[in-house]
Every structure is written in structure tokens, then in C-alpha cells.
Specification:
Layout: H1 3-10, H2 13-29, H3 35-41, H4 48-60, E1 64-65, E2 74-75, H5 77-86, H6 95-106, H7 112-127, E3 130-134, E4 142-151, E5 154-161, E6 166-171, H8 179-192, H9 198-225, E7 229-231, E8 241-243, H10 253-284, E9 289-292, E10 304-312, E11 318-327, H11 332-353
Antiparallel strand pairs: 1-2, 3-11, 4-5, 5-6, 7-8, 9-10, 10-11
Helix pairs in contact: 2-4, 3-4, 6-7, 6-11, 7-11, 8-10, 9-10
Function: Negative regulator of class I heat shock genes (grpE-dnaK-dnaJ and groELS operons). Prevents heat-shock induction of these operons.
Family: Belongs to the HrcA family.
GO molecular function: DNA binding
Length: 354
């Protein structure tokens, strides 16, 4: 169970309703909500003192905050996150918003760049926020690549193409990666990169992994046959090779050298599998996300939110993204379907053109 669901499940109906009403009022009006206002909005009739006690409990949980002494409450960033993840009711796309976005696509710009400019302007006009449009990812020859750690579960890949264009893509790295391991991965990829595309690099890595596995199998086979070692998971080549009675090998330099070589092959295979996963995640790019406040590391605007949705080509591969940047009190229920619909429109248009 996620932390959001766990907290929500522990809250009673009254606490959930008070929390929801405070957040919804904040998103609509931008100001704190007092207990007397809530007594008129709650489905059950309770005293203002009872509501104040509930709000104090929610404040203790880190979900609400009071900007001034004796003022009402507003949601914290954690509270907004929990509301978006657990209580947000996404509305159907408004007909007027749909027509405005459809009209933009109907303008039929002469090139993709012109189309995306029009889409950005329409998205900004419909949502009254700043629009973000990431152009289609290129499948072009590469010049250089870097992996940059942003947080334990967030990383940025910077891709420089041979024609000088630069792309930044967010991805979630495999568990246990460090800035040092990311630099090593980038160094290895860059040694193969010249004139190749991401897809071609991915194939090279898979070929390297297959070759290393075959070499590892051949080196380990003799030890396994002699009973000195055994595969922990014989059907899973990512399993470990367990050596039995290694003390019996002391003095047998040839066997020790074989074991050292096998260990080296295991380490090399693991590094290459990590790099292959990096490349795969780089191609996948980012899925649909809502970044609230300081979660929005790309812009470092603690008072802003980013709602972003990918768009895809005919092969269902993510090639770009559209989004809206605005204050944390965005009308998420309205903005989410607008961004989602815009992404679908852009993907369809680019697919039709190609």
C-alpha cells in the first residue's frame, strides 16, 4: 500500500471530508479556509470547535498549515500531493476547451515546429498557464551523452546530436546507481557513440551482453562439470556461480586464474546490463506525471506545479511531451484532461504526417 493510501485509509470520513474541502477551496480561491466556513459546507452538522480539532490533527500529519496565527488552513505540498494521488476527481474535457484545441490542429501548420508553436499558444490560452512543449525525440546520429543524478530516484540524460541539437530527458535509474556508476556508463557509451543512434547503441549493448554471457558459460562449464561450482539459478543467467570447497583449489594456479576471470566476466556483464537498462530508459523517456512545488526539480520553483503528458508516434513510442506550468493551486481536475487530450492530438498529427 502506498503512503498516500495508507494515510487516507487511517483517516475517518470526517477528516477526509475536511481535508478535501480545505484543498478544493484553496485550489479555487487561493486563500486559507476557516472552521466556520467548513461548518456550512460539511455534510454532517458539527461545531466549529470540532472542526478546529480535526484541522489540528491534519496539521500534525503535515497535510495542512496555518499561514497566520488564528487564520484558517491551507494545504501543504505534502497535502496537495496526497490530494492529487488519492482524492482528485478528474473532470471530462470541457467542450469549449476541446473546440479551441481542435481548431489549433485544424490550422495545419506547414511544419512540425510551426504546429508545436501553435499548440503551445493554444494550451497556454486555454489553461491560463505557461505551456511546455518538448519537440519529438530524434532518431539521429549522436555525438555525446551524459547521465546526471538529480535524486535517488530521478536522473537526467543529456543527449548531444551530431547536428549540434541537444535534448534533456528525465528517467528513473535502476536501483542502487550512484553518480560514479552513471559517469562510468556514460564513458562506455561515448566510446561507441560516434555516428550511431540510440537504437543502434541499444543493439550494440545487447550484442555485448550476449557475447559476455557466452564467454562466461564457456569458462564456467568446466568448473560446473567437475563439481567444483554450481549455478545458483541454472535457468537464469543473471544468477550466481557458487564455488564449492574453494580451499581445495589453493595451490592450483590455473583454477584460481579461471575463477578470477569468471569473477571479472560477471562484473563486466553486470556493468553492461546496467548500461543497457540506462539506454532503454533513455529511449522510453518520461510518463504522465504531476510535479508539485519543490518536486519540480527542472525549474526549481517551489511555488509552481508542472502537469506533463507524453505524446507518441505510430509505434507507440514516446517522442515528446506537452505540459502546463502554473501555481501549485492549479485546477488539476480541469488541467489534467486538457494536457492529456493535447498530447493525443499532437501524437495523432505527427503520426499522420509521417
Amino acid at each position: 500500500m502506498s503512503e498516500t493510501n495508507e494515510i487516507l485509509s487511517e483517516m475517518n470520513d470526517r477528516s477526509r471530508e475536511v481535508f478535501r474541502l480545505v484543498v478544493e477551496s484553496y485550489l479555487e480561491n487561493g486563500g486559507p479556509v476557516g472552521s466556520r466556513t467548513l461548518t456550512r459546507a460539511l455534510s454532517e452538522k458539527v461545531s466549529a470547535a470540532t472542526i478546529r480539532n480535526v484541522m489540528q490533527d491534519l496539521e500534525f500529519l503535515g497535510l495542512l498549515d496555518s499561514p497566520h496565527v488564528s487564520a484558517g488552513r491551507i494545504p501543504t505540498q505534502q497535502g496537495l500531493r496526497m490530494f492529487v494521488d488519492g482524492l482528485l476527481e478528474v473532470r471530462d474535457l470541457d467542450n469549449d476547451d476541446r473546440q479551441m484545441l481542435d481548431a489549433t490542429v485544424g490550422n495545419n501548420a506547414s511544419d512540425v515546429g510551426g504546429l508545436l508553436d501553435q499548440v503551445g499558444a493554444a494550451l497556454s490560452g486555454v489553461t491560463h498557464g505557461a505551456s511546455l512543449v518538448l519537440t519529438p525525440k530524434q532518431e539521429a546520429p549522436l555525438k555525446h551523452i551524459e547521465f546526471v543524478s538529480l535524486a535517488q530516484d530521478r536522473a537526467l540524460v543529456v543527449i548531444v546530436f551530431a547536428d549540434g541539437q541537444v535534448e534533456n530527458r528525465l528517467f528513473t535509474p535502476p536501483p542502487g546507481q550512484t553518480p560514479s556508476s552513471m559517469r562510468e556508463a556514460a564513458n562506455f557509451v561515448n566510446s561507441w557513440i560516434e555516428g550511431r543512434t540510440l537504437s543502434e547503441l541499444g543493439k550494440i549493448m545487447q550484442d555485448e551482453i550476449t557475447r559476455r554471457r557466452q564467454e562466461l558459460d564457456a569458462k564456467a562449464a568446466q568448473l560446473v562439470e567437475s563439481g567444483i561450482a554450481v549455478w545458483e539459478s541454472p535457468d537464469d543467467k543473471s544468477g550466481r556461480l557458487i564455488v564449492r570447497g574453494r580451499s581445495n583449489l589453493l595451490g592450483d594456479d590455473a583454477a584460481e586464474e579461471e575463477l578470477d576471470l569468471i569473477k571479472h566476466l560477471f562484473d563486466d556483464l553486470e556493468r553492461k546490463q546496467d548500461i543497457a537498462e540506462f539506454l532503454e530508459l533513455t529511449e522510453q523517456g518520461e510518463g504522465v506525471r504531476i510535479f508539485i512545488g519543490s518536486e519540480n526539480k527542472l525549474f526549481s520553483l517551489s511555488g509552481s506545479s508542472l502537469v506533463v503528458s507524453p505524446y507518441m508516434n505510430a509505434d507507440r513510442k514516446i517522442i515528446g511531451a506537452v505540459g502546463v506550468i502554473g501555481p501549485t493551486r492549479l485546477n488539476y481536475g480541469r488541467i489534467v484532461p486538457i494536457v492529456d487530450y493535447t498530447a493525443q492530438l499532437v501524437g495523432k498529427l505527427i503520426t499522420d504526417r509521417s
